[in-house]
Amino acid sequence: MRHAELLVEADVLRRKRGGDGDADARRNAGLEATRLKRDALNVVAEIAKINRAIELLGPITESINSRLNIVHYHYKNWKDVKETGTYAGKLSERLGGNGHVNAIKYNAEVIAFLQNAHALCDSLPYVLNLYLRVVSFDSRSIGWTQQSIELLETGARNLGENLLADRLVAFSKQPLFSKLQDIVNCAKHKHLVPIFYANGRTVFAESDGEWKASETDVHEFMVAVDNVLLPLVLDMLRLTSQHCPSS
């Protein structure tokens, strides 16, 4: 509608430019008509971006749903083998070891859950950008960098989406998310973070390469990611879905 209005206004001014009257008035009408046509072209470009965003949202929505199903699958599996992991650590201690939890299925479900939860969180800036359109859809730099967050925050506030902007910034500073990034990035780029049985609970090792138990309780962390972190992601996705155009 805005595109059509701009073209009508530009046509009215074009006629004034070609009509009788003061030369300055006709010249100003011509300049204004040119500006309106330029604005109309910008509207066309923005419509094209919106249409492209709608095209991309189809497979991305399916991907998010699949990722959530995978996350829930591994979380359920982990709960089923929780005691197995604890037993493996206790057995290590009884045999004079350091309490290392070497149960393959237990470790596999922990890292599979965390990696998929992390991937879901990491996809959020890209998905939000389809709504806010502040960075090229083909950009590989969109992510949880300070520059990306500032661009997305500004784009959200320009649209009056202050609640979304506030929650996005808060999530980027969420300690739980930082710890998830730390564990998964270490596992992806360096080594798996070992798990130990210590002081009656299973805990992650420090991610500095040393086999030393940290204070991060595996059970508490897994539950917090599932019950706290992921709902924050879904909440931001719901905020955008309330206003996104549908195909």
Folded structure, characterized:
The protein is mainly alpha-helical and 247 residues long. It contains seven helices and three strands; from the N terminus they run H-H-H-H-H-H-E-E-E-H. The chain has helices at residues 2-18, 23-94, 104-132, 146-158, 162-172, 175-189, 218-241; strands at 195-198, 201-205, 213-217. A three-stranded antiparallel beta sheet has the order 1-2-3. Strand 1 and strand 2 (201-205) form a beta hairpin. Helix 2 packs antiparallel against helix 3 and helix 4 (146-158) packs antiparallel against helix 5. The longest helix has 72 residues, at 23-94. The two termini are 17 Å apart. The mean pLDDT is 84.
Give the integer mean of the pLDDT values: 84
Pattern of helices and strands: HHHHHHEEEH
**Rounded radius of gyration (Å):** 27 Å
Question: What's the β-strand tally?
Answer: 3
Which secondary-structure class do the elements indicate? Answer: mainly alpha
Helical region count? 7
Helical content stands at over 70%
Shape: elongated
For the biggest β-sheet, the strand order reads: 1-2-3
Poorly predicted residue ranges: none
Largest sheet: 3 strands, antiparallel
Give the termini distance in whole angstroms: 17 Å
Strand percentage lies at 5-15%
